[in-house]
């Protein structure tokens, strides 16, 4: 009888301990699965898409369109000054007409690219405002302070004005600031790394912008400041080997951009910035 009672108490104790352990494990899993809502993620995506389109606009504007137009004016003047009807002049005129056709085609292609990309920018901007509005109520409930919300809205409004004015420098500036100001929103969700990613994207875009203006020391400071966010992400990622490799690529690409600052090449700065952004996008998949 005594043995039975001892056995019964032992059995109940085992069941109780297993149940408690199961509850603790369930709680841990729940915390690890907490992620930012789609509306917030959508705002980030819209900002990313806008800056990608702006880079295409920037490249289109860098095409030798100005040189082409100057050549066209010179050709027209040359054509007007031609007074002889020699065979050489005739051939020159034919060459000029051919070049004019090529010039018109190139200019037309550039105009099409600009029109298409600006349309995309305007559409994504509307998406950013709409998704932010959808997230606001949920964000306030989660703990987003009015100060944080106002700070993001201010940068988003400046960003909108820059787009309206088609000011590329200000678009990069306020667009990346908007990204950075989303960071505290993501911090409210356990194990979410998009906050750190947003801040590193800000650093990459600002580094490119400032390096292009010759502000190299400021660019270095921005890149050096990303180490803090890298360390935070390492802690959150834990033993996920896929994420660890992706994060290592981010670190290496930041180092590459740091090295590129020794050169006076806007094209090089842009390439290195694009690699950082691409690696960050791979990391957040």
TrEMBL record:
Annotated stretches, region: Disordered: 68-106
Start-end of Basic and acidic residues biased regions: 68-79, 87-103
PROSITE patterns the UniProt entry points to: PROKAR_LIPOPROTEIN (PS51257)
Domain of life: Bacteria
The protein, known as: Lipoprotein
Organism: Tissierella simiarum
